[in-house]
Each structure stands twice: as C-alpha cells, then as structure tokens.
Model the fold of this input.
Amino acid sequence: MSDQQAQGKGSNQGYTTDQGATFDALVVGAGFAGLYMLHRLRAMGMRVRVYEAGDNVGGTWYWNRYPGARCDAESLAYSYSFSPELEQEWQWSERYASQPEILRYVEHVADRFDLRRDIRFERRVNHAHYDSQNQRWNLSTEQGDTATAPICIMATGCLSVPQLPDIDGLDDFQGARYQASHWPHEGVDFSGLRVGVIGTGSSAIQAIPEIAKQAAQLTVLQRTPNFSVPAQNGPLDPEFAQAFKANYRDHRRYHQRGLSSGFGDLEVVPRERAPMAESALPLSKQEIAEICDTYWNTGGARFMGAIADAFINEEANAKVAAYVHDKIHSIVQDGQTAAALCPTDHPIGTKRICVDTNYYATYNRDNVRLVNLRQTPIEQITATGVQTSQEHIELDALVLATGFDAMTGALLRMDIQGVDGVRLADQWQAGPVSYLGLMVSGFPNLFTVTGPGSPSVLSNMMVSIEQHVDFICDCLEHMRDGQKTTVEPAAAAQAQWVEHVNEVANATLFPKGGSWYLGANVEGKPQVFMPYAAGVGVYREVCEDVVADDYRGFQFG
Ligand code: NAP
Done:
C-alpha cells in the first residue's frame, strides 16, 4: 500500500495548481474510464493531465460507499480486460464484488500502472472552452487550475451527479442526514437508532437490508416500488475462477459481442442449461415460472434475458412482471406490505432492474416498516423526523437514496463551450445529441466516454468504457498518421444517429418506464431516451463499420 493510500488520499501532495499548463490531452475524471484513458494515451506517448473531484481514484466506487453497495455485474466480467497480467493476478473474493473490494481493485490498477502522478485530485473542472483559432481546449477547475490541450476527454461517469429530493424542510432535520451517493468514508453505525430511508432504487434496495441489521427501527419511505431480483451472491469458488481465467479471452469476446448488455453473466449457469423462451405469449403461468425460476435461483440481472420479447411486447412483459409479483407475495409475509412492494406503474426492466440480497425478506423483520408514500405522501421534513399526510415519524437519522441527474448531469454541470462559444447546454436544451455517444458536432476533439447515444448504462460499463477508450485512441492515432489536428462529427451524421437511437428505443418498452434513462426523475429535464438500446454487440459492429468506412460521419481538419 502506498503512502497516499494509507492516508486515504490520491497523490496531490507536493503539487501546486496548474497555471496555463500545456498537455497533449486533458481528461476529466479518474474512475474506470479516466484511468484506462490515461493509461492508453500515455502509451501513445502523450502528455496527459487528469482532473478528479474526489481525493482518490475510483469514481462511482469512490463516492457510493453506502452499506451493502455492490456491483450488479459479476466481478469476473466487471473488470478491465486490457491487461492479461492484471486479469490473472487479481483475485475476486465474491461473485458480485462489494464496493470496498472494487475500490481496492481500482487503487491497485492506479498503482500497478503508475497512474497517480498524472492525476490532480480534489479538482473539479468548471469550464471547458474551445479556442478555435489555436485549436485547443482550455480547462479550468474550481480550485484555480488552468490547463490547455488540443484533445479533451470527458470521463465523468453516467451517474455522478446526485439528485436530492425537493421536499419541504429537508434542511430543518436536526438528526444525522446521509446521502447514499456521498457516504462518509468512516462508515456509519446505526445501532440503536430510528432510521428513515427515502428512495427504493438500486442504492436503497442494497442498503436497506444492511441498515435493518443495525437500526433499532427502520422506516422505508417508498414512493415507487422497483422490481428487484436476488443476486444469489456468494464467495467465488477459486477453482471456478481459475478455470474461467484460463479462457478469459473467449469470455471477454463473448461479453463484448455475445449479449446485448455485455454482462455476460452466463458463467455461473452454463449457457446450455439456461432455458430461454423467444416469447412469453404462448406460455402458461407454470411454464413462465419454470423458466424464470432458473434465473431467479441462480441470480442476477440476466433474469431479464430469460424471455426474449419481454422488452418489446407489453403482454409478454406483464407475464414476467406477474412472476415477480408472485415472488414478492411469497416472500413478504404481510399482504399489504407485499402489495405495496409490487411495481405496477412500469413494465419490468424499463427501469434498471435491481439486484439485491434479502431485500424483500427484510420486510419480515420486526424492526422494519414500509410507508407507502403514494397513499400517505410526505408533507414535510421536520427537525425530528418526517411528517406524512397521516403521521409524524420520529427519526434519529435520515438516509437519502434519491438517485442521480443521469448521463447528462456531469457534462452540463460544467460550462462546456465549443466553436464560436456555443454552449453544450444550449445544444442539448431539448435533450442530448451526439454521434455514437462519442462526440458532438461543433465541439471538435471533445470526446465523451460512454456518453448519451451509446449503450453505456444499459450495459456492463466496463465493456463499454474499454470500447470507447480504444475507439478514441484509434481515432487519435488515425489523426496522427494522417497529420490531421481536429475531428468532429458531421451535423448530418449526428442527426441520423440521434434519429436511429430514438427509433431503436421506440421499438422497445423502455420509453414507457418513466426512468432516469429518460431523464424523468429530474424536474424540467427534457425526456429523451438517452442510451442506445440495440446492445453492445450491435453497437461495436456499427463503430467498427464506421472506422472501416474511413470514419464515416466524422470530419477531420
Ligand atoms: P434511482 O433508481 O433513481 O432511485 C431513486 C429513488 O428515490 C426512487 O425510488 C425515487 O422514487 C426516490 N425518490 C426520489 N425523489 C423522491 C422524493 N422526493 N420523495 C420520495 N422518493 C423519492 O437511484 P439509485 O437507487 O441511486 O440508482 C440509480 C442507478 O444507479 C441504478 O439504476 C443503477 O444503474 C445504478 N446503481 C447500480 C448499483 C449496482 O451496480 N448494484 C447500485 C446502486 C445504483 P420515484 O421512483 O418515485 O421517483
């Protein structure tokens, strides 16, 4: 462990702020995307500066430290594939890695590839302006750094701007208030406390069972229930891991192309033993249950892959949803609580399916109570608790797990200006537009890793991050070889891509989800389905085809 890690810090010690420093490329963010970007650019001989708001590497895994935080993609698939040595030497302990283990992995990667020296921590980029005359991006940070480079890469993550609820009196609460996405590094001991949790998305669904184990009383304040399937997490069998690693290249190829999500979590149940149906329509309830049971019992988000038309046909979707409703009723003893936990307002899967450990069973504990805010809404938060239309709930601690301004939030929080001072915020006023989710017309040499318009949040992020970073590096090499200095998408290619992304989404049930995929959780945000829903395999083929066709749709200058 390095000194910096021992202090829980990145490696800013001894560095002053950058003042007009010049680089070959600037990268914003030191999560999985920013780190791999830095590694690749450095290997190309570039001088790179990375700015990171946190005081250490890790991005989402640095910030989201709430109890129970765990990845919903399996650890052997949710890891870098770029280094076979790294793949072989890192030992995952569980099927789904916990946040602390993933953070240790990211820190190991930063040290192993000596990445920290090019990263400045606790630096939040607030401006990124393109200087057309000099063909450079000028960045500044809230902490006073200024730097310039011809290339700028936004590796700012898809879920990195927390969304706090707009509830009267939120700041009046005198007890301890916590935010799932900004959890204290030292952890929280809820023993003996009356705790309230607002939110029942993926974060809360992971945190609730853990908080319930400690708290004297836990009140879950639920506005909308979400579908959740069991992770069936457990220790990773070393023999299984070793055998898996012996074929890592094949598995990686399969993750990248074989499945639409890139999750590839078919490892635990061999593919030939995983039943699938093309359609739920001709199947009886019993037949649906037989198929879904296999997925429920083996665990994970691949549950949604059991029946092929569940994402495109409402009747088929309803049959799968009914299976989960039955499961909830079979687990949760109190009928009224079970009914309140059954989502009925959106097709299953159109909001990101949650993956949990003992979530529904937690409601059978004596110290856990569900308050259905649809029936008794929150009127205000008071100094001592939460006032609903029916009662005052006394609380010692309040946990907010209320989500994120997803996909566009981190980009639009910065003042990004392209050619002629055109603001990205203005270009995206009616929703994000991009070519391939990688670049925006009018913003030369500005790349967005897993930006809106790419599979990103619908996929295993590691697969999508590596693909984008590799694409960007290949593109920069292409420019170097051709002595080109700028690249940006043609407006027509961008418009076509945006139309295609919408067409693909509209052929699915996704737009009916009212989810953060659409921006529906942020008041006033334009509702546009942001990720590309055709899958990582199709998307990769599109990108390869674009490259093979001399970077069709991109203009080089
Ligand atoms: P989320 O899914 O957006 O859930 C936010 C929750 O807060 C919803 O239940 C929402 O209810 C509720 N909420 C918001 N404002 C409220 C208000 N004013 N009053 C009452 N309730 C309110 O956010 P999240 O749980 O942080 O998850 C976001 C995404 O992060 C996930 O979908 C997933 O992609 C990712 N994530 C992944 C993992 C993992 O890998 N295992 C873990 C955590 C998160 P409404 O629906 O009624 O608005």
User: Anything to note?
Assistant: The radius of gyration is 23 Å. Residues 1-8 have pLDDT under 50 and may be disordered. The pocket of NAP is lined by residues 70-72, 159, 165, 167, 198-204, 206, 223-224, 352, 355, 373, 401-404, 457, 516, 521 (CB under 6 Å).
